[in-house]
Design goal:
binds zinc ion, single chain, 67% helix, 7 helices, mainly alpha, 156 residues
Length: 156
């Protein structure tokens, strides 16, 4: 899924925890940022595997959305990485349990959202300048619901 979904979903969970007094709003925001940051591996894999435009964010984006010349997901998107990172979160939780929880929410929500493949249900294919966009109606609907959910949680 796209970065905005990877941000909104853990943010929503973080805001729920904020509402019940477990998280500060900063930690809720942090969980959302972690959700996006996990996909930094797409950029690193691009630098490693790409023949040209190695450091281009645009080339990284287009390969991820449309071209799929190689897999941009590193080990942190698979079981071995999940075991290693879970162990790291566990260590962090000994000193900073809520930061560890925010890290875990951001990380595991990213993995969870990457599982379904909505590519066939694409409603929107765009090319703006040199950037490709493909959006599925499921993801658009999900994002709208998450935004509404975040607003409701904040207003409660
Ligand atoms: Zn991902």
């Amino acid at each position: 899924m796209y970065s905005q979904t990877h941000f909104l979903f853990p943010l929503f969970i973080g805001l729920l925890l904020y509402r019940v007094g477990i998280f500060s709003w900063k930690l809720a925001l942090f969980a959302g940022i972690v959700g996006i940051f996990i996909d930094i591996d797409h950029y690193i894999e691009h630098i490693i595997h790409s023949k040209k435009n190695k450091f281009s964010l645009r080339a990284t984006w287009n390969n991820s959305i449309k071209l799929h010349k190689f897999n941009q997901r590193s080990f942190i998107h698979y079981w071995d990485g999940a075991v290693i990172l879970s162990f790291l979160f566990l260590i962090v939780s000994l000193w900073y349990p809520f930061i560890a929880l925010a890290l875990a929410i951001g990380y595991f929500s990213n993995l969870l959202l990457d599982v379904p493949n909505f590519a066939k249900k694409t409603i929107l294919k765009l090319k703006i300048g040199e950037l490709y966009f493909r959006e599925s109606w499921v993801e658009v609907l999900f994002c709208v619901l998450l935004i509404i959910g975040c607003i409701i949680v904040l207003l409660l």
